[in-house]
Amino acid sequence: MLCCMLAFSAIAEAQSVTKTTHKKAVKTDVVTTGTLTIRKPSYICISTDNDRDQLIMDGTKFTMTMGKKKHVTDSRRNPMFATFQAVLEAVINGRPIPAGDDLTISKNGGVETITITPTGKKRQMFTSFVLVVDTKTSSFKTLRMNDRSGGYMEYTFKK
Q1: So what's the pLDDT on residue 159?
Q2: Which residues lie closer than 8 Å to 91 by C-beta, 6 or more apart?
Q3: Whole-angstrom distance, CA of residue 109 vs CA of residue 94
Q4: Number of other CB atoms surrounding residue 70 within 10 Å
Q5: pTM for this prediction
C-alpha cells in the first residue's frame, strides 16, 4: 500500500499559485495564494486561502468551493466544462488542443492563449475562461474565469 501511495504522489506536479478576485462593485481586489496540483491524466486541484477556496477537476467532475459555498458540475452535462476539460487534459498530457466551436486559440511567441466562450443560451456561472499556456513547457501561466457581473477570478501560476 505504501509503495502505491509513493508512486501516486510521485506523478503529482505542484506549483504555487496566486488568485486575484475582482468584483466590479468593489474597489480593492482580493489576493490569496496557494498551490496547483496536477496528477495525470485528468486531475487538477487549485487550492488557495489555506484550502478554503478550491477548484478541482477530477475526470468529468468539477467542484468549486468558495468559503462555505460549493458548486459542482459535470462536463458530460455542461458543454462549456466539456470544452474546458478537453483543453486542460490536452495541456497536462502534452497533446494538441482540440478544435471546438466555443474556443479560440491565439499564439504569440512561446505563449498560447485559449479562450472558451459558451455557445447557446444556457445560464452559466462564468461567461468565459481564458487560459494562457507556455507552449515550450506545456505549463499553465494564467487562468482567468470571467463572471456575468463583469468580475473575474484570475489564477497566476509559478513553478
Answers
A1: 79
A2: 97, 131, 133, 138, 140
A3: 18
A4: 10
A5: 0.87
